[in-house]
């Protein structure tokens, strides 16, 4: 059983009772977690085998079909979401905005699997939202898939562990912020905590970044 499904399994009965996904007609493209689809159906959703005007959501798993993606977005103009939209909607017990769970396309942080250390709770929440909105994944612990450790200062158990892993980039929060501001992956080597200045970068919301300078 996947960790994501484990995280929201306590919501299963609630979803069943309140039919959270009533009126959702979905088409799946690619491979998705079978338990996730089971939770969808228990919540009142109806699965369809092909796209049509009847479909309200297209859920993209791994290796989605290109024609499904283009048809969903261009022909039928239905939201294309990742399966995490289902999981976090269950966790919050409400249908979340689909814009934060885009599926089937490469976003700025697609492929980035990050863990945090030495950050305040408030900063962690802001960085998590930024990472998630742009397609990244967060894990509280290191896994073989972890690509980045985002840390405020070069110390601690996670930091020492990351130094032993050649596949993990150790960066400050400024790497995430500057990458979003420039809409490109900044060079991680320039954001190692040993090189960081003493000033703490100001963490702002995704909405503030998107509004850009000079916006009303």
From TrEMBL:
Could you tell me the superkingdom of the organism this chain comes from? Eukaryota
What CDD domains would the database entry show? Answer: BRCT_PAXIP1_rpt1 (cd17714), BRCT_PAXIP1_rpt2 (cd17710)
InterPro entries named in the record: BRCT_dom, BRCT_dom_sf, CellCycle_DNARepair_Reg
Every copy of the BRCT domain together lies at 16-103, 104-184
User: What is this protein called in UniProt?
Assistant: BRCT domain-containing protein
* Species of provenance: Graphocephala atropunctata
């Amino acid at each position: 059983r996947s960790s994501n499904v484990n995280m929201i399994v306590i919501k299963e009965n609630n979803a069943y009772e309140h039919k959270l996904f009533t009126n959702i007609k979905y088409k799946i493209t690619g491979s998705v977690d079978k338990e996730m689809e089971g939770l969808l159906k228990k919540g009142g959703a109806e699965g369809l085998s092909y796209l049509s005007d009847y479909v309200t959501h297209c859920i993209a798993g791994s290796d989605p079909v290109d024609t499904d993606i283009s048809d969903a977005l261009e022909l039928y103009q239905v939201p294309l979401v990742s399966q995490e939209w289902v999981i976090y909607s269950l966790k919050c017990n409400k249908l979340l905005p689909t814009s934060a769970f885009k599926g089937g396309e490469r976003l700025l942080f697609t492929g980035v699997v990050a863990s945090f250390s030495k950050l305040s709770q408030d900063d962690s929440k802001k960085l998590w939202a930024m990472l998630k909105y742009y397609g990244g994944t967060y894990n509280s612990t290191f896994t073989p898939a972890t690509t980045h450790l985002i840390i405020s200062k070069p110390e601690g158990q996670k930091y020492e562990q990351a130094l032993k892993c050649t596949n993990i980039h150790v960066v400050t929060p400024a790497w995430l912020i500057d990458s979003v501001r420039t809409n490109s992956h900044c060079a991680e080597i320039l954001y190692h905590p040993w090189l960081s200045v003493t000033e703490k970068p100001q963490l702002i919301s995704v909405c503030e970044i998107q509004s850009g300078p000079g916006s009303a």
